[in-house]
Design brief:
alpha/beta, Rossmann fold, 2 domains, 7-stranded parallel β-sheet, 5-stranded parallel β-sheet, 11 helices
């Protein structure tokens, strides 16, 4: 390996990149932090002489790939790879990899926290008590979680971890909508289609990847068949939900509430109607975060780059092509 190997980090946000340097420097690779802030032209410029790229949110387009003749691998700091043109990368034999095996505890904790905050009116009650209210319980109905039905849209690591925790809360039935499963794959769950899940679940949590099939999978139609007491939680990707339809359903009280960590447009604008609704709890795409998950994420992402620079395949290769 020569000293010319160059790894660019296209988005900032971590306190230090010593973890990546410790893994990649022994291979003769230098690291350059080039924050692109979702600017495709900045991405193209940053990758022009790179052998590898690490990315959080900025889009990697076919044009950017075409201008990066040395590029061998792109690794997403995280799970979703919807911002990377995987087909264009495959056509150029550039590996795309992600880190699917981190943060399951954190995201499932956060999904559970959002669900409980909505179900128990925690945020609303906090504001009321601070303003002098007391003994208002019966004015805002709450329902026991034990004995109810949980619906999981997508059944990967995070969803399964979330299920484990919700079982401890006394959930009686678990419905799963996931086209990649077949009956009997996982005992203890009932595999159903999305319509049945929406109709029969008390709590619905979204864990599907974002792609052309799943974009706006929750529309006015799905919201219309949900129970009036249903709570919808999204810690996956914002565009899984038609946000305007969700806002209307919440405004009209057609579902009980929602807990949202992700949105169609991020960061969330201050004039978004969601910010004015009492039956929704919001957070800032932070479900993935803990100090432990950051260290795990940076380490595993850098190790994927290292594998490719050493002539190996990445462990979590997501744009496979036919090899010669």
């Amino acid at each position: 390996m020569g000293a010319q190997l160059r790894v660019v980090i296209l988005d900032d946000g971590y306190d230090s990149y010593a973890t990546e340097e410790g893994i990649l420097a022994p291979l003769g690779a230098t690291i350059a932090l080039r924050p692109c802030h979702n600017d495709p032209l900045a991405v193209a410029s940053a990758m022009a002489d790179a052998d590898a790229a690490l990315v959080r949110e900025s889009p990697i387009t076919a044009a950017a790939l075409a201008g990066a003749p040395r590029l061998r691998v792109i690794v997403r700091y995280g799970i979703g790879v919807d911002s990377i043109d995987r087909a264009a990368a495959a056509a150029r034999k550039v590996f795309v990899a992600n880190v699917p095996d981190y943060g399951a505890e954190e995201v499932s904790d956060h999904a559970m926290a959002l669900l409980l905050a909505v179900a128990r009116h925690v945020v609303r009650r906090d504001r009321q008590v601070r303003s002098g209210a007391w003994n208002v319980s019966r004015k805002e109905k709450m329902y026991r979680i034990a004995g109810h039905t949980l619906g999981l849209v997508g059944y990967g690591r995070i969803a399964r971890t979330f299920e484990r925790k919700m079982r401890g809360m006394g959930i009686e039935q678990v419905l799963v909508a996931d086209p990649f499963l077949k009956p009997g794959d996982y005992p203890g769950i009932e595999l159903v289609d999305l319509q049945k899940l929406c109709k029969e679940s008390d709590y619905i949590s979204l864990h599907a990847p974002l792609n052309d099939t799943t974009r706006h999978m929750i529309t006015a139609r799905e919201l219309a068949i949900m129970r009036s007491t249903a709570i919808l939680v999204n810690t996956g990707r914002g565009p899984l939900i038609d946000e305007s339809a969700l806002i209307a359903a919440l405004q009209e009280g057609r579902i009980s509430g929602a807990g949202l960590d992700v949105f169609e447009r991020e960061p969330l604008l201050s004039d978004n109607p969601l910010t004015c609704l009492d039956n929704v709890v919001l957070s800032d795409h932070t479900a993935w975060y803990s100090e432990q998950s950051v260290e795990e994420l940076q380490s595993k992402a850098a190790m994927e780059v290292a594998r490719v620079l050493k002539g190996e395949h990445p462990l979590h290769w997501v744009n496979r092509w036919e090899e010669d």
